[in-house]
Amino acid sequence: MRPTTDEGTHRLAAPAVPGPAERPYVVGLLRASHPLPAATVTVLAALLSAASGLDSASAAEAVAAVAAGQLSIGWCNDRLDLRRDRAAGRRDKPLATGSVRPGTVGAAACAALLVCVPLSLGCGLLAGAVHLGCVAAGWTYNLWLKRTVLSWLPYAVAFGLLPAFLTLALPGHPWPPLWLTAAAALLGTGAHFANVLPDIADDLAGGVRGLPQRMGRRGSTASAAVLALASCVMLTAGPTGRVSPAGAGLIGVTLALCAVAVAGPPALVRGRVPFVAVLVMAGLDAALLVLAGGAPPAGRVWP
């Protein structure tokens, strides 16, 4: 279509303001993937890969598999929540505002899942099966358990098995130590309680009654804090049975973050602060593992 002019003066008519549906799909699609949790779990996998001793090529493939799996779970979640998010007037959800089409998000979720399968199995059949089990737990949460009292279970399973995916990709296919599995499961469950805090009212109005929604804001905040602290203590004391000075410092930071989450100003606690605090704890815990283990040779895992 040619631009209109005014009687040969070549003055262009004012262009129409683009609506939400005309905005670039890439931005909307990225926002619909839950980019912060996806990026955090991917970085956590990268740090755990370094701590476990995976070589660079295997680590890259494993991290790519984790990224693909996280993207598929995030897109699946937003696609399934479309009606509820529209009813709640969620302006932070691209699907609810129309900045990306439902079919695009659904196709992206399926495509990411398909990419995740060969990437996971490329790390070894057993390791790949474990990671696909993690991804299946995320999809099960979206499709069913999110609305039940067992909403915490997929988080515990997926996070708890993430270290196993990485160690099973090592020569000899060793399983991770029990303390690492337990610490990861506690951290994931704490992240679940923290993640739902800003949306509890909307969730209840939309019929979502997972365990955090049933416990309420105060109970969920306290649960997230206790679980995150327990995970931190287990990670710092697990490798040697004692807490190092760096570990003690990390526990102190975790206590401070928990105190802010539980007793901070209401306006602060009602937002995303508790969830971001749990993500920060996860990054600090993983970084401590890398520093404590140095750069172990390939095939060596934690004691």
Keywords:
globular, 14 helices, mainly alpha, single chain, 303 residues
Notes on the structure:
The chain has helices at about 25-30, 35-50, 55-80, 80-85, 95, 100-120, 125-145, 155-165, 180-195, 200-205, 210-235, 245-265, 265-270, 275-295. By secondary structure, it is mainly alpha-helical. The radius of gyration is 22 Å and the shape is globular. The model is unreliable at about 1-20 and about 295-300 (pLDDT under 50).
Question: What secondary-structure arrangement, pairings included, does this model have?
Answer:
Blueprint: H1 25-31, H2 35-52, H3 56-80, H4 82-87, H5 94-97, H6 102-121, H7 125-143, H8 153-167, H9 178-195, H10 200-205, H11 211-237, H12 245-263, H13 266-269, H14 273-293
Helix pairs in contact: 2-3, 2-8, 2-14, 3-6, 3-7, 6-7, 7-8, 8-9, 9-11, 9-14, 11-12, 11-14, 12-14
How many angstroms does the end-to-end distance come to? 69 Å
Mean pLDDT: 84
From the alpha carbons, calculate the radius of gyration and give it in angstroms: 22 Å
Oligomer: single chain
Q: How many distinct helices?
A: 14
- The fraction of residues in strands falls at under 5%
Give a quick account of the main beta sheet: strands, pairing sense, barrel closure: none
Shape: globular
> How many individual β-strands?
0
Unreliably modeled segments: 1-22, 294-300
